[in-house]
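The freezer alarm interrupted the setup, so I double-checked each line after restarting. Inputs confirmed:
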Amino acid sequence: SQMAEDDDDDDPENRIAKKMLLAQIKANYSSG
Amino acid sequence: KETHVLQAENQKLFTEFVEYCSAHTEDCPEVMKFLHAKHAKASPEFLASVEFRNTLGRCLTRAQARRTKTFVYINELCTVLKQHSAKRRPTVTAV
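Predicted 3D structure, all chains:
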C-alpha cells in the first residue's frame, strides 16, 4: 500500500539500501 | 552428515527470510528475485556453513524487529551471497 511505501521511505538507511539493490538489478539487466 | 544438517537449517532460515521480506517488499518484487538469484549462485560450501546460518539468523531477527529496514537486511544478505559466489572470477596471483 501507499502507506507501507511511505513507512519504508521514512527510513533513510532503508531508502539507500533499496536504491542500491535496484541499481544492481538494473546493472544486471543491462549486462545481459 | 553435519553439513547436510546445516544445509537444511540454512535452507529453512532462508525460506523464512524470503517469506517475511516478500510480504514487506510487495512494491519491488524484483528485489526478491535478485536475492534468489544470488542465493542460487552462491557456493554450496558457503550455503552449508555456520557463517551463512549466523548471517541469516541475524538478518531475519533484525528484519522482524525493524520492519522499516527490510531492504537494509536484504541488501546485506545479497552482499554476503555475492562475496561467496561460486562463479566468482579467480584473482590473478601469478605474474
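Quick read of the result. The first helix of chain B runs from residue 2 to 24.
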